[in-house]
Design goal:
Layout (H helix, E strand, L loop, with lengths): L35 H10 L5 E6 L8 E7 L2 E7 L5 E5 L14 E3 L3 E2 L6 E2 L5 E3 L19 E7 L2 E5 L7 H5 L1 H7 L7 E10 L3 H8 L5 H4 L6 H6 E2 L2 E2 L6 E4 L5 E5 L18 H7 L14 H12 L19 E6 L3 E5 L3 E9 L7 E9 L9 E3 L2 E3 L8 E3 L8 H16 L15 H14 L13
Parallel strand pairs: 11-22
Antiparallel strand pairs: 1-10, 2-3, 2-5, 3-4, 4-9, 6-7, 7-8, 9-10, 11-19, 12-13, 14-15, 15-16, 16-17, 17-18, 18-19, 20-21
Bound molecules: FE2/S2 (inorganic) cluster and fe (ii) ion (FE2).
The site of FE2/S2 (inorganic) cluster (FES) has 8 residues, from loops.
Length: 462
């Protein structure tokens, strides 16, 4: 379903700042990542009260198509309806609790439980029960139906909330809705889908994607020491030049200027890869920029602005200039991070393990825009793939397969940090200003546990 975009007009290309938030400054103790009690509190008061991105509309195009996703101990079924809408249900038979479906996706006329053959229609209504006359409480058909959850769509994704009293998805997403509406993300296609279990708490993953303080050390960019301090992959990662925003609703945004030659500037001053190829794609001659690596960003913005729409990049008309070149890194409370580029959506999500606070499920996906007539290959986190590539969801054990050089660097740290959280010698975090997004995230979790919602969500009490 297409979302109505009312803010993203060609004459409105500015990106307003988000409001300043006050932080309490708590230290983050190791037991937040190891304690079963805290894990249970998070489940009871936070996971079951927030909007969770669980599915993709294009995965279930036809009535009766279903997709199923696990979150902690729950399994959630999303089903395309006759009227084109999507309903979400707990994946549990109402007879005696058997899982109704196994696997990731499929198509049904009716969901038939394997145990005693109760059959539920795609709208959740029980249509058949064996020996229906033999139930002292009455025939269960039409009465004992699947339990549904709140379900909405945005940016082509299916979002689900276990709290029947929750605020709307739009209210929950706040300014994310406006920012992302500019990209026409519902038309983007998935090119990478890698899922693994990690031996760490889910927050270890989110903390990592909530700061770029680790980038110069963990990701070891090439180049001179000065360049390493400032640039990674043509993006200026220095916190002094980075824009940080924390929304009232609890989501974070970090904007780092990109499209520079930076470390891809060869020692003789010529423009290196991948910027060299990107400039050619946009009708720019890298030879004109020898020794002028700082000028490539503005030139690229201008070229994309001018040539984009005619080349099929129709969303460029709605993007702000910085959205054409820069790295927009979002973390959406509670559990996923996105690096959003003009034509790439790097999706990183951590889901809690069903019972163990020291494990999580980690997804690393890549979506790309689909400009009509474009044939250039797609640059993804795991390399360059052809535009017509059919993506297969790969699920594997930790370390069994590379997730791409950058993410592998992050993932190698996670178990070491998780081990450190058990130490009697760890007295809690000591956070830098540029790590404020971590601080805020944890304060929100504490607020949810205490029964408070962030301002603007659910008519907060503070
Ligand atoms: S548990 Fe599903 S039909 Fe009995
Ligand atoms: Fe990283």
């Amino acid at each position: 379903m297409q979302n109505v975009v009312d803010i993203a007009r060609a004459d409105d290309r500015s990106l307003p700042d988000w409001p300043v938030q006050s932080l309490r400054g708590n230290r983050l103790a190791g037991e937040r990542y190891t304690s079963r009690e805290f894990f249970q509190q998070e489940w009871d008061h936070m996971w079951t009260r927030v909007w969770l991105l669980l599915g993709r509309e294009s995965e279930i195009p036809n009535p009766g198509d279903w997709q199923c996703e696990e979150v902690g101990p729950e399994s959630i079924l999303m089903v395309r309806q006759k009227d084109g809408g999507i309903n979400a249900f707990y994946n549990v038979c109402q007879h005696r609790g058997n899982r109704l479906v196994t696997g990731e996706k499929g198509h049904v006329n009716r969901f038939v439980c394997r145990y005693h053959s109760w059959a539920f229609m795609p709208d959740g209504v029980l249509a058949y029960a064996q020996d229906a006359e033999d139930f002292p409480e009455g025939d269960p058909c039409g009465k004992v139906n699947l339990i549904s959850l709140r379900c909405e769509t945005f940016a082509g994704f299916i979002w689900v909330n276990m709290d029947p009293e929750c605020a709307s998805l739009r209210e929950f997403l706040g300014p994310i809705w406006d920012d992302w509406s500019r990209y026409d993300l519902h038309t983007w296609k998935r090119y990478v889908a890698l899922t693994t279990t990690l031996p760490c708490n889910w927050k270890v993953v989110l903390d990592n994607f909530n700061e770029s303080y680790h980038v110069p050390t963990v990701h070891k960019p090439i180049g001179t020491p000065e360049e390493r301090k400032r640039m990674h992959s043509g993006v200026d990662t220095n916190y002094r030049n980075t824009r940080f925003d924390l929304s009232d609703e609890g989501h974070n945004r970090m904007i780092m200027a990109g499209g520079y030659a930076g470390v891809s500037l060869n020692s003789d001053g010529t423009i290196g890869e991948p910027l060299n190829s990107i400039m050619h794609e946009w009708g720019l001659n890298p030879a004109d920029f020898v020794g002028k690596g700082d000028e490539t960003r503005a030139a690229l913005q201008k070229a994309k602005r001018t040539l984009g729409p005619a080349k099929g990049y129709t969303h460029y008309d709605k993007l702000a200039d910085e959205q054409l070149t820069d790295a927009f890194h979002y973390t959406l409370f509670p559990n996923f991070a996105v690096s959003l580029w003009s034509d790439g959506f790097h999706f990183l999500r951590a889901r809690p393990h069903p019972s163990d606070p020291e494990q999580c499920v980690f997804d690393n996906w890549w979506y790309a825009s689909q400009p009509e007539g474009e044939t250039a290959p797609i640059r993804t986190t795991v390399g360059i793939v052809p535009r017509d590539h059919e993506c297969r969801h790969e699920v594997f054990a930790a370390g069994e397969k590379s997730m791409g050089r950058t993410i592998d660097g992050d993932v190698e740290i996670f178990p070491l940090q998780q081990a450190g959280f058990h130490s009697r010698g760890y007295v809690g975090s000591y956070l830098a200003g540029q790590e404020s997004r971590i601080r805020r995230y944890h304060e929100l979790i504490d607020d949810y546990i205490a029964g408070r919602r962030p301002e603007r969500v659910n008519g907060s009490d503070g």
